[in-house]
Amino acid sequence: MSKLIKSLALVLSFISMVSVIGCSSSPATPAPAPQTENLAPDFSLKNLDGQTVSLRSLRGKPVMLNFWASWCGPCRQEMPFIQGVFDDDEWARQGLVILAINVGESSTIAQKYIEDNRLSFTVLLDTDQNVAKNYNIRGIPTTFFIDKNGIIRDWKIGAFTNKTEIDLRLANSILEGKQEGS
After folding, report:
1. pLDDT per position as a tens digit, 113-155
2. What pLDDT was estimated at residue 174?
3. Inside any domain, residue 14
4. Which of 8, 34, 87, 131 has its CA 20 to 30 A from that of 122?
5. Looking at the domain assignment, is residue 12 inside a domain?
6. How far apart are CA 143 and CA 99, in angstroms?
7. How many CB atoms within 10 Å of residue 74?
8. Which residue from 86, 94, 65, 83 is spatially nearest to 154, judged by alpha carbons?
9. How far apart are CA 162 and CA 182, in angstroms?
10. Residue 117 falls within a domain, yes or no?
11. How many domains does the chain have?
């Protein structure tokens, strides 16, 4: 009986570790990781409506860039918190843009997930994973906080556990960007 309990404890321990850390999504040839205080690598991707969105076109606005996939449990857990930030009037007044980059899935799968979960922030499709490779994404979810000047101010690998955690990261990165950009 004690062997069964030890095995169960080990399995539960692993599951909880994965849910906090994130899901693996290693690109074949990783690029050097983008660094804080550096310009975020530019990209152009299509959204779920087929329109092209480029990071460069969003200069002048703070951007929260989240890499995710529908099969990733931690990604699914944090999506309601991201939606909460998107719905927050204070962040809307700050001009915050949320871009959720779906890594490696088809538009059909991403669209179904977004509709089933009533999410309304912008989803971009990185079906060939080139943007994920350029950002050296090794695990998802991974989130970058980019100031209005296009500078990476902060980033996190793993899921957010609540909206407040995202709010704090955004407040620190946006305020820092305002000081330098003003």
Report:
1. 999 999 999 999 999 999 999 999 999 999 999 999 999 999 9
2. 78
3. no
4. 34
5. no
6. 10
7. 21
8. 65
9. 30
10. yes
11. 1
Maximum C-alpha span of the chain? 65
CATH assignment of the domain containing 164: 3.40.30.10
Q: Torsions phi, psi of 147, nearest 5?
A: -80, 180
Question: Residue 30 is part of which domain span?
Answer: 22-181
Mark 62-73 as b/e (b = at least 16 C-beta within 10 Å): bbbbbbbbbebe
Q: Answer yes or no: is 128 within a domain.
A: yes
